[in-house]
Structures are given as structure tokens and as C-alpha cells.
Amino acid sequence: MSVGNARAMAMMPTGLHRFWILVPLLVLGLLDLSTLSRSHSEAEDSALYIVNVTNGDDLYHPNHLLFGPLNRIHYLVWEAFGYGGNATVPMQVLSVLASLISAWLIYRIALRIGVGLPLALVATGWACFSFGFWVYSLEADTYLLPMPFLLWAILLLLRFASFADTGRRTVLRLAGLGAVVAVAALLHQQYAFVIPIIAITFVVLWQRDPERTVPPLLRAVGVFVTVAVVITAGAYLLVGRYALGLHSVSEVIGWSRGHASNGLWESLSTKTPLLLVAGFVRSIFSINFLFHSPRSADVMSRVFAGKSLVEERYLAEHGISTPAFVAIVIAMVVAALATLWLVLRLARRTPGPELSGSDDGPRRRFTGFATVYLVISALLIMIWEPGNLEFWIAVTPVLALLLAVLLSRRTRVVAAGFVLVGALFVANLLGAVLPYSQSDTDYWSVQNKGFREVARTGDVIVTDCPYVCRGNLALMTDVLPIQASSDDVDQLQAALGTRRVLVSSWAFTPPPSTEAPAGGGAVRKQLSDNRSRLVEIGRSGDQVIYELRSR
Prior knowledge:
The protein is mainly alpha-helical. The longest helix has 30 residues, at 214-243. The radius of gyration is 26 Å and the shape is globular. A 5-stranded mixed sheet has the order 2-1-3-5-4. It has 23 helices and 5 strands. The chain has 2 domains: 3-436, no CATH class; 442-548.
């Protein structure tokens, strides 16, 4: 596409711009709704989230305070209109809606920063068809609901005109920016870091102003930070005091730390940078196809020595056909070539003409924010859990937009950009979205389906398998299992004589897992002491199901 044609497309009427994105969004929405995840082996937290939202239990998780209540309200609305299932579909539909709104906002931001219509579509496609963004759009997990608020905050930031403007409208925009960021942080604590990131961005933008003075900067940062912190902290204090019964600010602060109260999930080491790169790559492309070939599966087993890969192997074997595997490999090769071409174009010293004649202010504000956001986000992910692709989901849209900005100054990039979008679509559709939409590709669903057939309301289940397995079992039976490696003997003892106790053979011989034992194994010891009272009542995959009968 020539620069002249690109400029002409960039200057098309706004209504026609909307048409270009609305049709893809409609198609994507229909595709998403027809491929909602039925296997939760990737988004392993989602199973327990579904159970909690369905039953109204443990809704106020400190790491994503509003996620549970929002989904619970949404689920109750569905029930009011006659819906009779659990919260799986309502929660997934909410994630799909959040992803579509996010796609619309990515597109709007791209046009606002002047990259032109073609690259706006490309940036939207890069973000929406990346593995992490797309797969979690179809899940009942926490990572998509905050995304529209992050992108809305970016749009508000782009409308910030000048530090010298102290009018009522500017103050309201700053307050609105703080409120939007606070909502994102309350939906997931990862976004709490957007507060200092935007404050730093204000400083960066202020330094570029030749007529800068300190008071306007302090006023802008002060209004934004005050509103964001007051709303965020106020929500935690209210929930802590009135929903959880905490009695002091220190108790609320301790509770609000959530997972962070246990320290870093992984210690920093020489392999941390490699894990960081691996987490980022996995957030872009699914690697499930690598387990389709026995030879490559063996290589992956050596690379990830000590980690059980039974879920990935099972999904690749039962969810990725040989033609799909070939198509994925071709798509990956095409993606690599398209990426190489775009990198070479970016490396050119002499940029091409601008693709849009729009004001350069929004572009400069966005590049300032994006640079700070990406650097700080990468550092935080590296420190906290570098190999976790989930934290990269929040990075993907901003990175896609920044790349679009940089590429908009180069020629002969649009075609390669669309080729990369197509490669992402094919690879992640065939390698993840379609396999996850089938329950028979989920290893733990196959292993636990026997419990669904024999478990009844009020039963107690004792097993000892990985976290994702226990979540799957709870979702299938509506019974949160007791871990045999734990010391929860009081819970087991209370059930004896009053409720039916089902025991998996995994309680005695657990499947391979890298998880640490839940305790000293007091529950397993008590079961072993009463093994003569165990009566086999069924099978579930590789498990034998026993009932612990009374004396």
C-alpha cells in the first residue's frame, strides 16, 4: 500500500472508520461465544472462581477485590431471567464483552495517536489474537475485566491538553482518570501500579514543556493520585471492615496484600531473564502444538524438567489433529518471517512519511506513557513471577499500539502487519482456542468425571492431586476436596457419621506434581488407619473411588 493511499484511508470519515472495526468485532464476538473454554487447564484459577461465584463464597479476594462481587451480581441477573446453570457461561460472556470493548478501545487509541486506519486494525489484531489475550477472553478469570479501564485511562490521558490549563474541565478529567485507574486496580491489583506509572508519565511530559513550572505539575499529579488512592484504599477499608469484620487499618493492610504476603513466588536467579522471555513469548503464541509430536514432547519434557506436562501432552494428543499441527507450524514460520521483516523496517535509519496528519500531541503523550508502562511492567513481572504469561496480558495491547506508532513512520509494513495478524489467528485458534473449547481435551476432566457420576450434595471428597485437578473436581461436583497431604483432620472427623466421605486412590498414591505438600499428611494417616473401612464404589480415570463406611 502506498503512503498516499494510506494517508487517504487515515483521513476517511469517522463513520467509515467505525464500519471497518465493527464488522470484525461482530465476527470475533460470534466466534468467541461459540468457542467458550470448557477446559480450564490453562486458566487454572477459573474453576474455583466459578464455584465461588456460583455459591456466593469467598467473593472478596484481596488481589482482585471487585472481580467476585461483579461476577456474582452478573450471575444473579442471569438467574433472575431464568438461567439455571452455574456461573461458568455468565462469567465467560462477561470476559468476552470486556475483550470486545478492549478491542474497540485499542482501535480508538490507535486512530487517536495517528497511526492510520490500516495499522490501527493491525494493532487491534495483534492484541486480540495473541494467545494470552484471546484465551483468557474465553475464560472465567480475572485478567480481561480490568483491561477496558486501562485502555479508557489511556484515552483520558491522551485528552490531557496542558499543565497550564487549570480549568474545571481539566480538573474533572484528572479526577476521572484517577477514578478509572482505581476501578482497574480494584478488579486486579496488578493495575495498582498504573497509578505511579501515570504519575511518572506526567513528570516525563512536564519535562518536555519549555514553559514548565512546578505548581501545575503538582496540581495535576495531586488530583489524579489523590482520587485514585482514596477510591482504592476506601474500597479496601469498607470491605475489610464491613464485609470481613476486620477491626483495624493494619489488619486491612495485611489482608489486602493477598499473595504478596507470602513473598516472591520465585527467587531471582540467572535463569530469570530466560523465564521472562519465555513468559512473554507464551503470551503471544500457544506452545501446545509442541507436544503433538512425541519427539518434540520429549524435548519439552527435558527443557521443563521437574514439571508435570501431562495436561499439555493430553491436550495436544486429543485436541490438535495432524492437519492442524501442520497448519500451526506453517503459521509459526510465516509469523517469524513477518516479524523479521517488520524488525528490519524498524531498523531503518530514515523513517518514511507520517501516515496521518493528526496532531502530534496525543502521540507524544502515548509514547511517553507506553515507555514508562512497559519498562516498569517488565521489571515487576521479572521480580514477581517471570514465567507467568498471565501478567503479560496487560502489556500486550500497549506494546501493540507502541509498535504501530513506530511502524507508522516506515513504509511497506502494512502487508506484513496483516500477515502477522493472520498467523496469530491461525496458530492460536488451532493450537489453543478450539482445543480448549472441548471438554474431552482436558486431562483432569477425564480423570475426575467418575466423581461427577457418584458424588451427591453434602458429600466430602478426599484426594491428593495438583491445584488445577482439585479446582476441576470442585467444579464438576460442587465439593471442595480435602487434601490428603493436609492436616485438616477436624474437617474429616466432623464429616464421619454425618456425611458420605468419598476417597480417591490418589489420596494414597498421588499423581506426579511439583506442588509442596499441604501439610504433614495427618489426613492420609487417618485414612490409612481406617483403610479396612474403605469400600470401592466406582472408577474415575486412573483413580479408584472408595466410600469410607462407618464402623
